[in-house]
Fold:
Amino acid sequence: MIGVSIFTVASAAAALAPSIETLILARALQGIGGAIVATLTLTILSNAVSPDERGVALGAWGAIGGLAVALGPRVGGAVTEGLSWQWIFWIDVPIGPVPVPLAWARLTESYGPAHRLDLPGLGLASAGLLGIVWGVIHGNAEGWTSPSIVVPIVAGVLSLVAFVLWERRAAAPMVPPRFLTNKALNRAKSC
Structure:
């Protein structure tokens, strides 16, 4: 509810922005609101839907996300061409208040496990992914054999190996090791 509210208010602020600095600030606030919503959607959906209906609900969630990615730029372009750029932000304003009272009335608070956050695992996974992504993004520009590319990629791979080893012995792992040996997940990865 907080994320949707922040996003809606920031959308109105972006539409009314008198300067580029105000627009940038409003867009940053939209990002904060959107990040709050996006990170919690699957958790809320999993908690709100019974296990036997969860597959259908997650499929619908994925389909709607796919449609948004496919149609968003086209609809946004049409709105911008037909009206003005401000209307891209005004579209969100009447929609935003709708889910807040619905969420207030229908959703119950949920809590994750009482385990501590796996900070070493988080650090190793983040460092590993950062190193690999950094190297891949900059590889063409700097040359794939240059130290500024090889070192981050190798460090990233080593960090991910250390992450897997850490997760196997951590008291409260970020990724439980049983996920790595789950046959259904491994079949999905091989497809």
Summary: The mean pLDDT is 81. The first helix runs from residue 2 to 15.
